Amino acid sequence: MKKACYFGIYDPKHWRTRVVTRGLKRAGYEVIECRVDPRKVVGWRKYVELVNSFRKIQDIDLIVVGFPGYLAVIVARLITRKPIVFDAYISYFDGIRDRKNYKLTNPVMWVAWLIDFIDGLCADVVLTINNVYKDFFVQSLLVSGRKVEVLHKGADEEVFYPRQSSTKEFLSIGWWGSYIPLHGLDVIVDSAKLLSSEDLRMHFFGSGQLKNQIENKIKEEAITNIELHSFVSQGDLVQEIANFDVVLGIFSPEPKALRCVTNKVYEAMAMGKSIITEDSPANREIFTHKENVYLVEPGNPVALAKAIKELASNDKLRAYLGQNAQKLFESRFTIEKVEEEFVGIINRHANV
Fold first, then answer.
1. I need a surface site. Which of 39, 53, 236, 349 has the fewest CB within 10 A?
2. What is the pLDDT of residues 282-305, one digit of tens each?
3. C-alpha distances in Å from residue 142, one per residue of 84, 203, 345
């Protein structure tokens, strides 16, 4: 049996890790892990330990560098000539830029771009999340087009599936995730203010970079129809999602956001929820407006408020969108479907 080494500082419990591992096994590989926990071993020490661990492994046919592995793939190339599949997921440069901590002229941004570029040289196959991002890797990061493959995100339907909702007084609008610029939370907050007279409540679950900013905005503008909650366990989260009548995706007009379909959208699809998210090339690649999702102009709180009002007043449209979103998920983004997508990628590059 062929052997694949799953290499890096990845999270073994992450959905992406599980799908790729299972896909490798379906493709006929025995999977051997070579991993360092970055919470226990920090700085450059974790890469030194990775190298030492890898030297104990023999007769490997393939290296798969798990996400996040922007430096790990460089380390892997320095210590082996075996074929490398790098699950880049998204661009390191794009993620740094989106957080807006540095101007584009800052040397930190040059280094971030260079890391993506070198990663493309080191890897034989580079995985990303959709065709829009594939084009970005090729055109902006100068990665060879023959190397870049799309492995969609999907979601774990063994966790995210339709559940019975509880009775509630108001229409419930839900969002969960990290408070980062990508999500356009300021747009959601502004739309909530426009909907102050409506019988609905918005619930945010999460934390992160912009948490204080969002909290202050809600207080200063006396917005009363948003409730903020901390991160909860996955088990608790799925029940909260079950209670949402509408799920919100992302609404930032920034470049990275236009290339992303976020995890929460796939999770909501799996649970048969009606979804509102921004009209973007990435979302248009998957969705059809008012067929399986409601798309609105990025960065536009008025458009978002209008969409929420329409779905709030139209039970049939909410149900229609939710049912079709679930059908789309089941046809393309279940565990089995994403595994099959990965096996196809491995087979296409069998001779790298």
1. 39
2. 999 999 999 999 999 999 999 999
3. 18, 41, 20
